[in-house]
Amino acid sequence: MKPNISDPTTILSWELRRTDKMEGVARLLLFAATTGYQIRTFAESARKLGVSLTLATDRCHILDDPWGDGAIAVKFDQIPESLEVLRRERFDGVVAVGDRPAVLAAAAAEMFGGPFHPLSAAQACNDKYLARQRYQAAGLRVPRFFRAKFDEDPRALAQRSPYPCVLKPLGLSASRGVIRANEEGEFLTAFQRIQKMGERYLQVESYIEGREFAVEGLVTRGCFQPLAIFDKPDPLEGPFFEETIYVTPSREPDAVQHELLETTARALTALGLDHGPAHAELRYNTAGAWILEVAARPIGGLCARALRFLPDRPLEELILRHALGENVSASVPANPASGVMMIPIPKGGMYQSVDGIDEALATRGIEDVVITAKKGQHLVPLPEGASYLGFIFARGETAEQVESAIRTAHAKLKFEIATALETFRPVA
Question: What is d(CA 297, CA 217) in angstroms, rounded to the nearest whole number?
């Protein structure tokens, strides 16, 4: 079946069927594992919309309940037990931030009878092997791949692998543990390095050449509505795949953009995603578009700040409106171009300080510089690490201007990171 991309008629007809649910104060349940910026933005958007928003989280012991609604304690890896806790509640819809929260959100939506992605689809998004199988069955371009356990003979796996290849731990996300190997020796080194991270399963894929992109969108009863195509101007060729700059709109020709969107829509259909946010990662080369990953949730964390919509709506407000059944298919970006840089960790060590923030903020086009690293924090770069030093946000008239502003601002930041030897002080 050919996927339906952004069919306003279908979206509007569903919206009209939801009108009866909007007569009183609507109640939404937000599944998230963090109390950071994005959760606060959801809370602010809910207040603006007059919506009751409750947080379901597995980190309630550190929650300061910023909007006074009370959080519900759940365990994202214990779905039946969490559903029993939620069964006493009533909600008109669910929203999720993060991969594991999206799975529980899908299960809760099925229990409440509300709109969201099916549980099987959310689970497939979290299983690289199952997702690859579904993409392949749908006729999408996929690399050669196989799954293995870390208790298998690594030399036999290395001999079985195509080269160059990419090793991916199945239980991790955001490029953590992902390593390229060009020959058997590099395969064995990468295997041992990932094995120390405590994962059970490994996926091995042939390496895909080409430029990398991200696609952000919403799905409404199976209809895909693209919100943005992000170019990733830094080459991601390995051996590690640390993402840095996202810039939208894409500077690719219309034909390339169309294929990226159509491939994303076909991947959503293959996975069975039906209603809610979707975030996809793709590559493009002379053969065309290749789907890498699809998540049943929006772009993560502070990166969502790169997207705003007229008149002045953050992505989180758009997601809440969509969860309540509002037709958001006419949403238009508030700026001609925007972007974000996830500031990479250049080396491991203890974070001390940063200079140059004022100079970076003075760069034309820079909207904000947010340093998330804390003094005394132990920094671990990829592939073992899972964090960044901070984020740089920019807006402008063109994608070229935005990228230039981000790179200029980043060059003005000077980070002090002390290595283990530098922080060691012998006791007298």
Answer: 9
SS3 250: coil
Beta bridge partners, 283, equal 212, 290
70 in the Ramachandran plot: left (φ > 0), alpha (ψ -120 to 50) or beta? left
Partners of residue 294 on adjacent β-strands = 280
What residue type is 50 in one-letter code?
G
pTM as predicted: 0.90
Residue 134 has what DSSP assignment? H
Fold designation for 1-134+209-334: D-amino Acid Aminotransferase; Chain A, domain 1 (3.30.470)
Domains 1-134+209-334 and 335-428 share a fold: yes
Query: In 10 A of CB 80, how many CB atoms?
Result: 7
Q: Strand 366-371 relative to strand 52-57: parallel, antiparallel, unpaired?
A: unpaired
Q: What is the mean pLDDT of the chain?
A: 90
pLDDT digits 0-9 by tens, 334-349:
999 999 999 999 999 9
Superfamily (CATH) of domain 335-428: ATP-grasp fold, B domain (3.30.470.20)
- Whether 310 and 278 have beta carbons less than 8 Å apart is answered as no
pLDDT > 90 fraction of the chain, expressed in percent and rounded: 83
